[in-house]
């Protein structure tokens, strides 16, 4: 069986270690260390793919520790978690410590998992690159053929057919429209809730366009402060800012003759928006610290899960940038609005997951499919993928039954009936265990409280007598997300 990537969690707080382990345990092996010395002992004896380090540790900062790690153990991909007050220190040490990305506290479980997945994939690519370099001279005559073959594989993998849907699905018309505009070199703005597949749609547009032979690069614009985001996108010159120890080629330059995908564009600051608008208008970038401009020919595909028109009206987003990016808007509908896609999508995800987990699974029971169809899927396709991965991991037989469902899916009919008034004010409880009834009641209270407070997490947490972290944990558990 193929071994899983190993993540080393370096944090002196046991609760923090356990919280991170719970998020990662289904996809990664984890090791923990409470100090730099413990971490170094593990690095000497274990194959570590990713290091996830807290910034504030006794004795030395996480950045200082990772600087030493870069010199002695350069292979693991380094991540750091920091409080907002530490951002300047992190920025100063990012390049010197070779930090791939950092997360701010309080971190979101989905975001943490997404970043660690990216780090593990980067480790794999780095190892592949080293192996390729060793074999490069031997394989030189066939190199171009290999690159062409990889491009053909990517074009097939990210074709519009990868967006699974039924013939009568709203996605069918959307894909048909996207295919028609793919060949024209105009910006595209993809909107939709988190987990609906905006990244897949962006890749399908690129690999169906005349730019398919060029690079496709992506950046989550909401994950980085302005200076780091500018450095990532536009590049920087050595010494441009504290921590810039080498020249850096930005993603716009890497995507020359290709496409760049700017995810979560609605989370950027007004200051950054001005700089991005200038790049889009002039077709030129100026790396930080450099006086010379460089022309780039890049197609921009942007995405957001927020209402940009409302952000423009509230003066949180520049109207000129909005109109520049939104030359052709595409809206990905949430999974709850296309129930006809659920059986096909579930079967596709099951096949892929079973193969990945090396398990022989033939399908779902009728009860499970009925629960899938009746559930609202606030986390959309990403939530369904996580649910199926959980079921496959726990399965002992070839058919996935209702006993494998998570609590929120186990009472899907009840969860979706919450918004419908019930006789004498009671929720349906037939066939539910006491634990399921209590969870259903708790979920309904949390949802009602969030609605009363306009989905403001801080105010709702105070009303419920919970901490923000505690409330976010329950939102994650029940898959609650603002849908109105």
UniProtKB/TrEMBL annotation:
<keyword id="KW-0805">Transcription regulation</keyword>
<keyword id="KW-0804">Transcription</keyword>
<dbReference type="InterPro" id="IPR027417">
    <property type="entry name" value="P-loop_NTPase"/>
</dbReference>
<dbReference type="InterPro" id="IPR002197">
    <property type="entry name" value="HTH_Fis"/>
</dbReference>
<dbReference type="InterPro" id="IPR009057">
    <property type="entry name" value="Homeodomain-like_sf"/>
</dbReference>
<dbReference type="Pfam" id="PF00072">
    <property type="entry name" value="Response_reg"/>
</dbReference>
<feature type="domain" description="Sigma-54 factor interaction">
    <location>
        <begin position="164"/>
        <end position="393"/>
    </location>
</feature>
<feature type="modified residue" description="4-aspartylphosphate">
    <location>
        <position position="54"/>
    </location>
</feature>
<dbReference type="Pfam" id="PF00158">
    <property type="entry name" value="Sigma54_activat"/>
</dbReference>
<dbReference type="InterPro" id="IPR011006">
    <property type="entry name" value="CheY-like_superfamily"/>
</dbReference>
<dbReference type="GO" id="GO:0043565">
    <property type="term" value="F:sequence-specific DNA binding"/>
</dbReference>
<dbReference type="GO" id="GO:0005524">
    <property type="term" value="F:ATP binding"/>
</dbReference>
<keyword id="KW-0597">Phosphoprotein</keyword>
<protein>
    <submittedName>
        <fullName>Two component Fis family sigma54 specific transcriptional regulator</fullName>
    </submittedName>
</protein>
<dbReference type="InterPro" id="IPR025662">
    <property type="entry name" value="Sigma_54_int_dom_ATP-bd_1"/>
</dbReference>
<dbReference type="InterPro" id="IPR001789">
    <property type="entry name" value="Sig_transdc_resp-reg_receiver"/>
</dbReference>
<keyword id="KW-0238">DNA-binding</keyword>
<feature type="domain" description="Response regulatory">
    <location>
        <begin position="6"/>
        <end position="120"/>
    </location>
</feature>
<dbReference type="InterPro" id="IPR002078">
    <property type="entry name" value="Sigma_54_int"/>
</dbReference>
<dbReference type="InterPro" id="IPR003593">
    <property type="entry name" value="AAA+_ATPase"/>
</dbReference>
<dbReference type="InterPro" id="IPR058031">
    <property type="entry name" value="AAA_lid_NorR"/>
</dbReference>
<keyword id="KW-0067">ATP-binding</keyword>
<keyword id="KW-0547">Nucleotide-binding</keyword>
<dbReference type="Pfam" id="PF02954">
    <property type="entry name" value="HTH_8"/>
</dbReference>
<dbReference type="Pfam" id="PF25601">
    <property type="entry name" value="AAA_lid_14"/>
</dbReference>
<dbReference type="GO" id="GO:0006355">
    <property type="term" value="P:regulation of DNA-templated transcription"/>
</dbReference>
<dbReference type="GO" id="GO:0000160">
    <property type="term" value="P:phosphorelay signal transduction system"/>
</dbReference>
């Amino acid at each position: 069986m193929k071994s899983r990537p190993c993540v080393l969690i370096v944090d002196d707080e046991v609760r923090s270690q356990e919280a991170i382990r719970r998020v990662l345990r289904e996809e990664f092996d984890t090791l923990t260390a409470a100090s730099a010395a413990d971490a170094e002992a593990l690095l000497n004896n274990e194959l570590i793919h990713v290091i996830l380090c807290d910034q504030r540790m006794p004795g030395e900062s996480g950045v200082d520790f990772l600087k030493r790690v870069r010199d002695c153990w350069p292979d693991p991909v380094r991540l750091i978690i920091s409080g907002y007050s530490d951002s300047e220190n992190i920025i100063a040490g990012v390049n010197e410590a070779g930090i791939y990305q950092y997360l701010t506290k309080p971190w979101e479980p989905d975001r943490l998992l997404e970043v660690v997945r990216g780090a593990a994939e980067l480790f794999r690519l780095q190892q592949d690159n080293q192996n390729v370099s060793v074999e490069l001279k031997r394989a030189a005559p066939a190199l171009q053929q290999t690159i062409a073959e990889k491009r053909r594989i990517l074009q097939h993998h990210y074709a519009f057919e990868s967006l699974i849907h039924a013939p009568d699905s709203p996605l069918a018309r959307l894909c048909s429209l996207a295919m028609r505009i793919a060949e024209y070199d105009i910006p595209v703005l993809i909107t939709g809730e988190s987990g609906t597949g905006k990244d897949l749609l962006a890749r399908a547009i690129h690999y169906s366009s005349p730019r398919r032979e060029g690079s496709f690069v992506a950046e989550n614009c909401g994950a980085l402060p302005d200076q780091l985001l500018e450095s990532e996108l536009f590049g920087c010159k050595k010494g441009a800012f504290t921590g810039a120890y080498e020249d850096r080629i930005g993603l716009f330059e890497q995507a020359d003759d290709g496409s760049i995908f700017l995810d979560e564009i609605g989370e950027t600051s007004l200051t950054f928006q001005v700089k991005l608008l200038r790049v889009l208008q002039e077709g030129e970038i100026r790396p930080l610290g450099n006086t010379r401009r460089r022309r780039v020919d890049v197609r921009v595909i942007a995405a957001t899960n927020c209402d940009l028109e409302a952000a423009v009206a509230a003066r949180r987003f520049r109207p000129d940038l909005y109109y520049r990016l939104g030359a052709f808007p595409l809206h990905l509908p949430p999974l709850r609005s296309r129930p006809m896609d659920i059986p096909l999508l579930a079967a596709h995800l099951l096949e892929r997951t079973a193969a990945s987990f090396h398990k022989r699974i033939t399908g779902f029971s009728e009860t499970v499919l009925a629960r899938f169809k009746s559930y609202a899927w606030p986390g959309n396709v990403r939530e369904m993928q996580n649910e199926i991965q959980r079921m496959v991991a726990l399965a002992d037989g070839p058919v996935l039954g209702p006993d494998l469902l998570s609590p929120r899916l186990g009472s899907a009919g009840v969860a979706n009936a919450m918004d419908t008034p019930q006789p004498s004010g009671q929720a349906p409880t037939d066939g539910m265990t006491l634990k399921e009834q209590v969870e259903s009641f708790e979920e309904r209270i949390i949802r009602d409280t969030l609605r009363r407070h306009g989905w403001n997490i801080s105010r709702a947490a105070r009303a419920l007598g919970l901490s923000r972290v505690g409330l976010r944990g329950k939102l994650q558990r029940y898959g609650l997300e603002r849908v109105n």
